[in-house]
Specification:
148 residues, alpha+beta, 60s Ribosomal Protein L30, Chain: A, 5-stranded mixed β-sheet, 2 helices, 36% strand
Amino acid sequence: MAGIVASTAPTVLETLLGSCVGIALWCQETRQGALAHVMLSESQGCTKQPGRFVDSAIPVMLDDLAKSGARRRALVAKLCGGANMFKISSPTQEVGRKNIDKSIKLLREQKIPILANHVGGSTGRVIYFDLESGSIRVKIGQEFVATI
């Protein structure tokens, strides 16, 4: 939680998400990837734990991947999580929705295509990000429900 991990195939990165969002970046040419488990959308100047916030995680992920030889032009993204775990009635107050929206906004600004997502809902999920293929398997409860 609140972390960033970067690695190379054949690694599979895994995390459990509720309202947090998993931001997966993958280089299609080098099969390197990074996964951030972000808890909140805005860092508001906090420099500790950049993986905790969408706005600080994405730049760190891009930097980590560049340092390890990933090619920026070949990067793609996938998003998971962002469930409404706290039964808040107003969409503008939902932590998960804010995380999703900020992730989409910043990835678009960076011109990184978002190939797929498995976001929202009211249930947590576990994701498995395969750096060999770039696919993410999504598990809710005891069942795999999607591969994106």
